[in-house]
Design goal:
It comes from Chondrus crispus. Helices cover about 45% and strands about 10% of the residues. It is built from 17 helices and 13 strands. Strands 2-3-9-6-4 form a five-stranded mixed β-sheet. The chain has a three-stranded antiparallel β-sheet with strand order 1-7-8. A three-stranded antiparallel β-sheet has the order 5-13-10. The chain starts with about 25 loop residues before the first strand and ends in a 5-residue tail after the last strand. About 45% of the residues are buried.
């Protein structure tokens, strides 16, 4: 949940050749060699795109957010451009992983998209690097501890069941349902309710209206990620961000006054024990993710105490970032999951057989625990990993080099914008057999090692905080659909995938469906 919100260029019709290159390690700590062949430029960059801002305005206006080409067949490192800016693309998977881990050289600050600091603050986790990033990241990590996932899962599973009921009702009414935007609202609802507890969970009209307002504001912020600066969409995004910060500030103040005992109890234990303590509180129904995050700050719980506005705003910006990350990546990946199930009846059938066997063993009980999902559904887990390999929600993430370095033997100058091409790297025959083929069993135990760059990195300081939680949400949503509903994807849809800014099917995901079982 850390990354699909960053700009990822549009990917169109990129056939990846089977040519393999010899993998060489990243030499991030080494100075560049004195003699080095120039980096290849596989597709000529038109002269007009090199003029200041011309390429940017053309691409944003046409929504043709496209890297000149993306393919490992051009070599592990090569030149391209994004929005009119020169970019060095790294498509070797080992090199990509090494770059993620070396945040001293490959830094987030100053890289694409330039709108991050404006929308989410100069102290956003996306932008910070090195010790500053680690210092800010460490206190919030207990809120994403796997110890809490079983408790999160029960809420997520119920949300998933409610979501598919609504979709089936829409199909009964309209004949079909378009899932792409529905997925966004679904995952947005999950992350907001996990954060705020029952704040927006009530069926009352006022709670529903509040949730819809928050949803619309967050979507407006997302619209400002890639747009003309100082245009109407940009100003709308800034106004929406400010209103969301005010809403979150009110929620934080509410937690400080109504959850004082819980917050102080969490502050009494060290960071390694917060998750265990929080799990006990969650069982009592007295805690939500926001309360855990508040407990990691120094904000006072005493009535009438003055709050440090900088600390308060940074916390609100962090939650806003989590909300944004929490829906966009999962919505993108789930859309790809459903599209591929629609075009691969054999895979759909194998996943359904796995679910049916589990339900039969449980005497028809449809409610699952996270432990059962993790241990008894290896094919579903493998399928989700395979979708994330082929269609990573953030196909390309960007870094800026803080010093001169070498990657796979190629010199890269200081100040270079680098694109880490997970989309191409994960379709490289040097790493995966039949890389263009969707193989549902690829990551079943004993198969190829996952190593998938999915929700924004596979290691290092910037590893996505919510990557594991994102998989939990996808398992609950996709698993519930396969287990409890029959679904058919409209065959007229285009199987081309684009990324503006996240990877999604170009034609959307239009489905027909009905319930498989009674009593759900």
């Amino acid at each position: 949940m850390h990354v699909a919100f960053v700009f990822a260029p549009r990917l169109l019709n990129h056939s990846v050749g089977a040519q393999q290159h010899r993998r060489r390690p990243v030499c991030a700590a080494s100075p560049p060699p004195q003699t080095e062949a120039p980096l290849p430029t596989p597709v000529a960059i038109p002269v007009y795109r090199r003029l200041p801002l011309i390429g940017f305005f053309i691409d944003v206006f046409t929504r043709n957010l496209k890297v000149r080409e993306l393919s490992p067949r051009y070599g592990p490192v090569y030149k391209s451009d994004v929005l009119g800016f020169p970019v060095t693309i790294i498509s070797d998977l080992d090199a990509i992983k090494a770059c993620y881990k070396d945040s001293e050289v490959f830094r987030s600050g100053g890289a694409f998209p330039f709108s991050l600091s404006t929308l989410f603050g100069d102290k956003a986790l996306f932008i910070l690097d090195g010790k500053e990033h680690a210092t800010k990241r460490k206190p919030v990590m207990p809120a994403f501890s796997p110890q809490l996932f079983p408790l999160y899962f029960s809420s997520i599973q119920e949300d998933a069941r409610s979501f598919w009921r609504k979709v089936s009702q829409q199909v009964e009414r309209d004949g079909t349902s378009k899932l792409q935007n529905a997925f966004k609202e679904h995952y947005l609802g999950i992350i907001i309710r996990l954060t705020t507890g029952g704040q927006y969970a009530s069926s009352e009209a006022s709670a529903e209206a509040q949730f819809l307002r928050v949803r619309d504001l967050l979507l407006a912020v997302a619209g400002g990620m890639i747009t003309f600066p100082f245009g109407p969409v940009w100003w709308k995004a800034l106004r929406a961000r400010d209103e969301l910060i005010d809403i979150l500030g009110g929620l934080v103040r509410d937690r400080l006054s109504t959850r004082k005992d819980t917050i102080e109890a969490l502050r009494e234990v060290d960071a390694d024990r917060i998750a265990a303590k929080a799990r006990g509180e969650l069982r009592a129904g007295s805690l939500d993710l926001l309360t855990v995050l508040v407990s990691t700050t120094s904000l006072p719980t005493d009535a009438g105490a003055e709050l440090d506005e900088t600390t308060l705003r940074e916390l609100c910006e962090l939650v806003l970032l989590l909300w944004f990350a929490g829906y966009s990546t999962q919505a993108s990946a789930s859309s790809c999951c459903l599209m591929e199930l629609g075009f691969n009846a054999d895979i759909h059938g194998r996943l359904r057989d796995e679910q049916d066997a589990i339900v039969r063993a449980r005497d028809g009980d449809l409610d699952m625990t996270l432990e059962q999902v993790n241990k008894e559904m290896p094919l579903l887990d493998s399928y989700i990993n395979e979708i994330l390999r082929l269609y990573p929600p953030a196909p390309v993430l960007f870094r800026k080099t803080a010093k001169a370095t070498t990657v796979c033997g190629h010199a890269i100058a200081v100040g270079t914008i680098v694109g880490l091409d997970a989309w191409g790297g994960q379709r490289n025959a040097a790493y995966y057999a039949e890389p263009e083929t969707l193989k549902v069993e690829r990551f079943v135990a004993g198969g190829e090692a996952p190593g998938v760059v999915s929700f924004g990195g596979v290691g290092g300081a910037h590893f996505c905080l919510g990557a594991a939680l994102g998989r939990v949400g996808m398992k609950a949503t996709v698993g519930t659909m396969v287990r409890e509903f029959d679904i058919r994807v409209d065959e007229r849809q285009d199987r081309e995938y684009v990324s503006v800014p996240e990877m999604t099917p170009k034609s959307g995901v239009e489905v027909r469906m009905c319930r498989r079982r009674e009593g759900i």
